Amino acid sequence: EVQLLESGGGLVQPGGSLRLSCVASGFTFSSHTMTWVRQAPGKGLERVSGITGSSGSTYYADSVKGRFTISRDNSKNTLSLQMGSLRAEDTAVYYCVKGGTGVPLEYWGQGTLVTVSS
Amino acid sequence: EIVLTQSPGTLCLSPGERATLSCRASQSVSSSYLGWYQQKPGQAPRLLIYGASSRATGIPDRFSGSGSGTDFTLTISRLEPEDFAVYYCQYYGSSPLTFGGGTKVEIK
Predict the structure, then answer these.
(1) How far apart are CA A98 and CA A109, in angstroms?
(2) Which of A2, A37, A105 to mutate: most B Cβ within 10 Å?
(3) What digits encode the pLDDT tens for the residues A80-90?
């Protein structure tokens, strides 16, 4: 059974930093593109960032480019998102998702809430 | 960037009725990379349809997808109580991945 378990969300002040993690199980993690998708309260879905299985390629939404960094540790089946210079508009539930460019977003974690507020 | 426009924004129907949801792309896209997702309140989205018309694992056959080029449709043949939710289309053929704004299917 595929499982994706996110952690690291919380309340952070504007300008602050936060690191999200996602531990994957139930599939060969290193072989699959992974994606972070976020959803602001009451809003739709936005792809934030993606990374290929080998970490050879990364992708970022224009809204987070230069502020967020995606990475993965295939030895630990872990996907990460380092978020910096956080803004109020980054407030959202962040989902860890198996899939990405060329592959449907087949499995989703339960999400972790990030709140940026003073 | 591919822009996906979903219509209607809200669909009010009764259980047992047929639901037809539309997703229009700003330019022609490969149907191989068009997906549909269902999201219920407080839950993560769930993949329903991939490749425009293939049902994901465990998805009931009352859900079907069709379309090509710029126009795609998700049809729910007979609405069950658990089908009232928000539905999103998504293009995953190229970066940036994009989502439509969603269609809410609510009980009439």
Answers:
(1) 9
(2) A105
(3) 999 999 999 99
